[in-house]
């Protein structure tokens, strides 16, 4: 096991192999006409991130080739084609390939080999190991979603890779030693009789794992501050001979966090570049943004540190180019720049497709199984700003499961409320056959169901916090449903309750918007000291989104995946009928007048 006890023997061997000289480049020195210039060489870094289980350019929820309004394509197979093109164009010159994490979660393909046929039970190679091994990465950083399925599966996936997996700030909670490889140093040959370039690669994962996957890592792993960890390891890497230092970091560059201040910063990449000397460039991910080229000046050295983030799902490939000179026995970077390549310009790599074809086909067959028939079409398109049956479907199932589990306990007499978020704007249950992929498209995350007890005052505070999702719109002002939410708050951080009736007045300031909160079907206000059992997913209950009052001891936690509970409920009944679960209980208003 790598995770609880430090790097395995295999990882140490991988690191040693990575440090061995590899004949990657043989570049001729640049020459000016009639006048020799100082000898220079070049290095290219190709970077991917947040591929999230996407290998094929395929939308498993639509059972069709992936497409969006911007004609983006996705998948590691597309990335492979671009990477191979650049390797061929450079004719063997130094080209390193890194990934900044969030690899083994995010599609039904990834879920199938973690849940339906877990690689820990079958011993089968994970599809993302198969795909990435074809590309032959130099290193991957662990993202927060790598921890979603527990440490045994993560450890096995790492052992299936043909290259190192890095996470310097993931520390064994008992020994204080690195739980994974912190870094590798690659020796890059510059050709016959040329000096060798030693490239240090440091991996940093996201501290939010301590919240988001608390059930998997608590007492086993500690996640240290990314800035402090870089400050610790960069000098060590330099002392051990690294001529260049590259960081592959699973954290954004905004400097903000989605959780409270009790954990280190979630998105500190720009701060790392600014505060830690000795870094040449940072490939980063996590925020799913496209950052082509950003320079941050190090406050101690004045060095311009190059940053780049290649979007998500394999839509983009970062390319960083460095021009290098050898002066007085030391390497210096004379030029650095980044560009971004779009995977919709190429076809999928046939070798990657072949490596994963059987697993892809098995997943397609699985998600196309019919689970029930819906009496009408149910859409999630308006779930952010209207009470919709399809979101009530989630809350109904969660309420039913928790209520049944607590029967006969001390909590049996408390009303059961439920919380759900509009994860998808495109999810639809068609009238007629509803398939697994339809349910998976509604509930796209691998969350499990938990429950806690909240007071009436805590419920109100929670709803007030959730209501910050909406822009403030004065009575009479025009309302555009597509512009009604604050772009700084993602859809998954807006929650709706079932089991109580309430109004959200979006003409009022944040914190004063819950103007009506009554017991379901009555005009009786919810008392501050009232007690409720609240069904909630593990991400939120663990602190994801920094919602108030919800991080407390569970009264229910059977480790049941919510998506599977939805599938099981539909299969057991054979029919999905809004009459069985739709109870309109909340609305947006302005001065008491409904917005819609």
From TrEMBL:
| Stored PROSITE patterns | 5_NUCLEOTIDASE_2 (PS00786), TAT (PS51318)
The 5'-Nucleotidase C-terminal domain is annotated at 370-548
Q: Which residues form the signal peptide?
A: 1-32
Name the SUPFAM superfamilies on file: 5'-nucleotidase (syn. UDP-sugar hydrolase), C-terminal domain, Metallo-dependent phosphatases
Q: What is its main location?
A: other
Q: Which GO terms describe its molecular function?
A: 2',3'-cyclic-nucleotide 2'-phosphodiesterase activity; 3'-nucleotidase activity; metal ion binding; nucleotide binding
What would be one Gene Ontology cellular-component term for the protein?
A: outer membrane-bounded periplasmic space
- What biological processes does GO assign it? nucleotide catabolic process
Report the locations given in the UniProt record.
Cell envelope
> Catalyses which reaction?
a ribonucleoside 3'-phosphate + H2O = a ribonucleoside + phosphate; a nucleoside 2',3'-cyclic phosphate + H2O = a nucleoside 3'-phosphate + H(+)
- Name the domain of life: Bacteria
PANTHER family the record matches = 2',3'-CYCLIC-NUCLEOTIDE 2'-PHOSPHODIESTERASE_3'-NUCLEOTIDASE (PTHR11575:SF6), 5'-NUCLEOTIDASE-RELATED (PTHR11575)
Q: What is this protein called?
A: Bifunctional metallophosphatase/5'-nucleotidase
Q: Which organism is it from?
A: Micromonospora inaquosa
């Amino acid at each position: 096991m790598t995770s609880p006890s430090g790097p395995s023997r295999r990882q140490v061997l991988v690191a040693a192999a990575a440090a061995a000289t590899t004949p990657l480049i043989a570049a001729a020195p640049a020459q000016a006409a009639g006048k020799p210039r100082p000898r220079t060489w070049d290095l290219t870094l190709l970077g991917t991130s947040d591929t999230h289980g996407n290998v094929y350019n395929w939308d498993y929820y639509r059972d069709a080739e992936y497409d969006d309004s911007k004609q983006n394509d996705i998948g590691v197979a597309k990335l492979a084609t671009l990477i191979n093109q650049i390797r061929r164009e450079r004719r063997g010159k130094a080209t390193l390939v890194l990934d900044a994490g969030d690899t083994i979660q995010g599609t039904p393909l990834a879920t199938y080999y973690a849940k339906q046929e877990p690689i820990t039970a079958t011993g089968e190679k994970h599809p993302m190991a198969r795909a990435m091994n074809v590309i032959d990465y130099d290193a991957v950083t662990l993202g927060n979603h790598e921890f979603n399925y527990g440490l045994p599966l993560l450890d096995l996936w790492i052992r299936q890779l043909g290259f190192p997996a890095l996470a310097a700030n993931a520390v064994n909670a008992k020994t204080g030693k690195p739980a994974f490889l912190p870094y590798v140093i690659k020796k890059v040959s510059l050709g016959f009789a040329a000096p060798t370039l030693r490239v240090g690669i440091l991996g940093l994962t996201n501290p939010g794992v301590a919240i988001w996957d608390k059930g998997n890592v608590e007492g086993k792993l500690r996640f240290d501050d990314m800035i402090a960890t870089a400050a610790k390891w960069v000098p060590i890497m330099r002392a051990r001979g690294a001529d260049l230092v590259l960081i592959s970091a699973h954290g954004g560059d905004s400097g903000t966090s989605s959780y409270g201040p009790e954990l280190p910063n979630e998105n500190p990449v720009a701060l790392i570049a600014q505060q830690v000397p000795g870094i040449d460039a940072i490939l980063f991910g996590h925020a799913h943004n496209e950052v082509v080229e950003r320079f941050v000046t190090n406050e101690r050295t004045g060095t311009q540190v190059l940053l780049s983030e290649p979007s998500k799902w394999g839509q983009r490939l970062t390319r960083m180019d460095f021009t290098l000179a050898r002066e007085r026995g030391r390497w210096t970077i004379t030029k650095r720049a980044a560009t971004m390549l779009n995977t919709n310009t190429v076809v999928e790599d046939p070798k990657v497709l072949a490596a994963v074809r059987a697993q892809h086909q098995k997943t397609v067959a699985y998600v196309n199984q019919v689970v029930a028939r819906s009496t009408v079409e149910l859409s999630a398109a308006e779930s952010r700003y209207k009470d919709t049956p399809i979101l009530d479907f989630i809350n109904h199932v969660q309420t039913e499961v928790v209520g049944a589990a607590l029967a006969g306990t001390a909590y049996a007499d408390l009303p059961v409320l439920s919380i759900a978020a509009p994860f998808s704007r495109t999810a639809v249950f068609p009238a007629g056959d509803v398939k697994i992929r339809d349910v998976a498209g509604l509930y796209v995350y691998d969350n499990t169901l938990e429950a806690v007890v909240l007071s009436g005052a805590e419920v109100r505070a929670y709803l007030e916090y959730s209501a910050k999702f909406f822009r403030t719109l004065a009575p009479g002002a025009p309302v555009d449903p597509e512009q009604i939410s604050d772009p700084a708050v993602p859809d998954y951080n807006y929650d709706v309750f079932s089991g109580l009736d309430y109004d959200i007045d979006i003409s009022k300031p944040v914190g004063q918007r819950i103007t009506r909160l009554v017991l379901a079907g009555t005009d009786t206000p919810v008392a501050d000291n009232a007690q409720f059992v609240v069904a909630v997913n593990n991400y939120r209950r663990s602190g994801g989104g920094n919602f108030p009052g919800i991080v407390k001891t569970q009264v229910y936690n059977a480790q049941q995946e919510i998506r599977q509970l939805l599938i099981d409920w539909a299969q057991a009944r054979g029919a999905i009928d809004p009459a069985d679960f739709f109870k309109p209980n909340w609305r947006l208003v302005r001065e008491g007048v409904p917005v819609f």
